[in-house]
Amino acid sequence: MVTGGAGFIGSHLVGKLLMEDFKVIVLDNFFTGSLENIQMYVDNPSFQVIKGDIRGRKVVRETVKEADYIFHLAAIASIPLSFKKPKKINEVNVIGTLNLLEESLNSNVEKFIFTSSCAVYGKPVYIPIDENHPTNPLSPYGVSKLAAEHYCRVFYETYGLKTIILRLFNVYGPGQERSPYRGVISNFIEALRSGRAPVIFGDGEQTRDFIFISDVVNALMLALKAEGVGGMTFNIGSGTETSINKVAEHLLKIFGLDIKPIYTEARAGDIRRSCANINRAREVLGFRASISLDEGLRRYVNALKG
Ligand SMILES: NC(=O)c1ccc[n+]([C@@H]2O[C@H](COP(=O)([O-])OP(=O)(O)OC[C@H]3O[C@@H](n4cnc5c(N)ncnc54)[C@H](O)[C@@H]3O)[C@@H](O)[C@H]2O)c1
Hints:
Layout: E1 2-3, H1 8-19, E2 24-28, H2 35-38, E3 47-51, H3 57-64, E4 69-72, H4 79-84, H5 86-105, E5 111-117, H6 140-159, E6 163-168, E7 170-172, H7 184-193, E8 199-201, E9 207-208, E10 210-212, H8 213-225, E11 233-236, E12 242-243, H9 244-255, E13 262-264, H10 279-285, H11 293-305
Nicotinamide-adenine-dinucleotide (NAD) binds next to helix 1, strand 2, helix 5, strand 5 and strand 7.
């Protein structure tokens, strides 16, 4: 079962699971997800999509009943929206998760893999950020992801439900352009495709850890297959720190454009630096980020050309 399987990351995961001969059920209310993302799977007899809300007890019960493994990706993944509608974010990201966890206990779920976020860490006190770094989220979105993580942990410790938490860093890749909450890379690409200059907030020297979608899907598959990882939390990033200026530079080269980015006021609350320490995922899951930023950007841009 993949909650949020019609979304950016979920739809790529669905493709991989079907390729590996799993039967896949998607539960998604299409809030940000789209049919376009999963259109190519709808005729596959191993694929089923249920339009429903993770806040709805009945639909969750009936879907979870069918599942051996749950990938829980459904969420409202927008920091700006979380400031505007913190209660709604709480309902979907926290209560929705709790619904799934409770129904998993009443069923035969063997593993529950939850996609959390680097937003749980807040402002880094050291870099690279490992899993023991303090968690001080700076947005209602980060709070909701952290609360959901705690529920996953408690359900493991109390009831033995094998929950695994993956804290994803900045994911990018084909399909993200369809998400209304796409990140900086998709915004830059959209601008460059129409010959406009990318807009950079602040001086562009702020850094992030960008990870290509196929590496994230690999991490999810490794979590599915690994033994003895119940109750564990893993950072999933590239382990490389990249400035926003560098991203713009790579993309301008790929597009062969000789234009300068536009610099505008820094965004309030943006952290200065971010980079994942991925040693635990490497050692325990055998994870490695195999796609460099340049390669990932080229693949993304090529995919858009069709
Ligand atoms: N994209 C990233 O860089 C990133 C980074 C860290 C964590 N994450 C996490 O990964 C997961 C997937 O993110 P994404 O980038 O694919 O976002 P996305 O918005 O493309 O996917 C989320 C999916 O959840 C669905 N959804 C939302 N509310 C729902 C509800 N109430 N009931 C059922 N379905 C619902 C949406 O329709 C969408 O298909 C999220 O949990 C997000 O918090 C993403």
